[in-house]
Amino acid sequence: MIRLERVNKRFGELQALKDVSLSVAKGEVLCVVGPSGSGKSTLLRCMNHLESVDSGTVYFDEVAVRPPLHNGKRRADSERAIEAIRARVGMVFQSFNLFAHLSVMENITVAPIHVLGRSPSDALLEANVLLDKVGLLAKARAYPHELSGGQQQRVAIARALAMHPQVMLFDEATSALDPERVGEVLRVMRTLADEGMTMVVVTHEMGFAREVSDRIVFMADGRIVEEGDPAMFFASPRQARTREFLRSLWERNRQLGAAAGL
């Protein structure tokens, strides 16, 4: 469904992605893990064309999207193609990005009404279904500041689903949450995976990656170092850099457990 071929992305002197090639099949749950600064979020943003690539090609349903600029001039056809893809891809960020002045219900219905052209009554009915799905139907009239972080993130997921995406991208969706709120968001994501939603999840939640993903990609220094199924990734990683990463996670968790008296 999504395919990247030798994608490179640079921010000034920093090369965030280096010859990255990757494919995501329909219905697959792909988790992307790695240390901070490894290029994970940039990879996701290039998939959704929030960042244009410097070289290489991004395909969506085997249709190549050309970079929007060519010789300093903007391509109108590329802009239209990118807008069409964004309409088919939902994205949930680390920060919730809800409209503070709109209620939960308004946050979910505003895009279907004004972008998809749905009637307010139809958008309202579907929003109720989605809020029930994420366990927040009782909060329909609340405003973002009245919600916990976990509740706000679940609203953000419902808002993305209201656009009927074919793919959902999650960029560290739980990293800004208190530990006790992480589980409620992961439960919603597990439900989507069980329902067959194509998902690319940048995460530091190794338990979720182990239990839910079909495949794990490990990134470091802008490159894909290793990829494989969860059993192989955690039990017998092939690359030394992957083993080092997993050892550091184990050691950090051991220290946290010791500090908590566990």
The N- to C-terminal Cα distance equals 44 Å
Q: Could you report the average pLDDT, rounded to the nearest whole number?
A: 89
Give me the Rg, rounded.
19 Å
> The biggest beta sheet, please?
6 strands, mixed
Low-confidence parts? none
Tell me the strand percentage band: 15-25%
Quaternary structure of the protein: single chain
Order of helices and strands: EEEHEEEEHEHHHEHEHEEHH
Structural class: alpha/beta
Number of strands: 12
| Overall form | globular
What's the tally of helices?
A: 9
Share of residues in helices: 40-55%
Task: Characterise the protein shown here.
With 262 residues, this protein is an alpha/beta fold. The chain is 40% helix and 25% strand. Strands 8-9-10-3-11-12 form a six-stranded mixed sheet, sandwiched between helices. The chain has a four-stranded antiparallel sheet with strand order 2-1-4-5. A hairpin with a 2-residue loop joins strand 6 and strand 7. The mean pLDDT is 89.
Element layout with pairings:
Layout: E1 2-11, E2 14-24, E3 29-33, H1 40-47, E4 55-60, E5 63-65, E6 69-70, E7 73-74, H2 76-86, E8 89-92, H3 104-114, H4 120-133, H5 149-161, E9 167-171, H6 179-194, E10 198-202, H7 206-212, E11 215-220, E12 223-228, H8 230-235, H9 240-259
Parallel strand pairs: 3-10, 3-11, 8-9, 9-10
Antiparallel strand pairs: 1-2, 1-4, 4-5, 6-7, 11-12
Helix pairs in contact: 3-4, 3-5, 4-5, 5-6
